[in-house]
Amino acid sequence: MPAVAREDVAAWVLGMPVAVALGLTFEQLGEGHSVTRLVWREQHSHVPGAFQASPIAALADFTGASAATTMLPTGGRAATLDYTVKFLAEARGEQLVGRGRVVRAGRTVTVAAVDVYVLSGEGTTLCATALVTTRNLPPP
Amino acid sequence: MIERSLGPEGFVPYVRSSPYLDLVGPVYQSAAEPSIVRLLIDERHTNARGFLHAGVLVAVADTIMGHTLHRAAPEAPLLTVSLTADFTGSAHRGEWLEGWAEVRRVGSRISFAACTFQVESTLVLTATGIFAAAPVSA
After folding, report:
1. A53 to B80: CB separation less than 8 angstroms, yes or no
2. Percent of chain B beyond pLDDT 70?
3. 3-state DSSP helix/strand/coil % of chain B, to nearest 5
4. What is the C-alpha to C-alpha distance for residues B37 and A91, in angstroms, rounded to an integer?
5. Nearest-CA neighbor of A99 among A41, A60, A55?
6. Which residues of chain A have pLDDT under 50?
7. ipTM value for the complex
């Protein structure tokens, strides 16, 4: 199975101008899971070499919502209802990787959990964890 | 057509912007009350159907909550510890969002804030944030 099995979902997400502005890419995207990557840019930080909270939260949202969307038929969309993000460590490094998994896929609402890691020359650190709730929108 | 560079009347460009806020902005703050901000939703903020994407708004919410707390207690920089956001309504390309933040509690190490965003009378987002005072370098 290809790493990005749901190319339709990836194309939908990456077609959003905000995803392009952020610089998001997919590493994996299949039934109930999503792995995303964000390479550090100056726009992602207050301090050189570290990601600020906002792009970490945005990555968590994209990762959780895209994992939730993979549980829907082609053309279905997951819209964020709420999310909560806990910032666990300073995100100093070159890249962020978001790993999302669907905790429960309901008919109306889906819940996904996301861990965000920062990758640096010194290793990999879990820097944030999030729960994302989405509303399931059926195909038009 | 609204001229982005002018901003709404009574508002000025956000004073404490950052590269990330510049990326999602421009954000404007009230000339009278910096905890009140406005953002014009454009094509960069939306999905293919023209609806505002959640991540944009949380970036602004995080920033204005942190800065509002910092104005109340400017002794140390603040780091975001927790963000919780509820997306209660939708917003669309071409609409002006208005948001405001308020201090819930300022502690010696941990502080709390909340914020709300609306488009006219439609509630779009409510959020709360917990912030920790950053260690001050010697």
Report:
1. yes
2. 92
3. 20, 45, 35
4. 27
5. A60
6. none
7. 0.80
Residue A23 near residue A41 (C-beta atoms within 8 A): yes
DSSP at A72: S
CA A110, CA A48: separation in Å to the nearest integer? 36
What is the per-residue pLDDT for A1? 55
Q: What's the CA gap between B32 and A11, in Å, rounded?
A: 43
CB contact under 8 Å between A58 and B19, yes or no, is no
Residues 6+ apart with CB under 8 A from A94: A39, A40, A119, A120, A121
pLDDT digits (tens, 9 = 90+) for B28-73: 998 888 999 999 988 888 876 778 887 778 888 998 999 999 999 8
Task: Say if residues A98 and A35 touch (Cβ distance below 8 Å).
Answer: yes
Distance from CA of B67 to the nearest CA of A (A): 13
pLDDT mean over B100-107: 95
Mean pLDDT of chain B: 86
Which chain B residue lies closest to A20 (C-alpha atoms)? Answer: B44
The pLDDT of residue B7: 65
As a whole number, mean pLDDT of residues B5-34 equals 81
Number of Cβ atoms within 10 Å of the Cβ of B131: 27
A52 in B contact zone (CB under 8 Å): yes
Instruction: Please answer yes or no on whether B43 and A53 come within 8 Å at the CB atom.
Output: no
Question: Cα(B117)–Cα(B56) distance, rounded to whole angstroms?
Answer: 12
Q: Outline where chain B has alpha helix (H).
A: 19-24, 54-72
Identify which of B24, B62, B84 has the shortest CB distance to residue A84.
B84
**What pLDDT, on a 0 to 100 scale, did the predictor assign at position B6?**
53
Q: Could you say which residues from 17 to 56 on chain B have a Cβ atom under 8 Å away from some Cβ of chain A?
A: 18-20, 22-24, 43-48, 51, 53-56
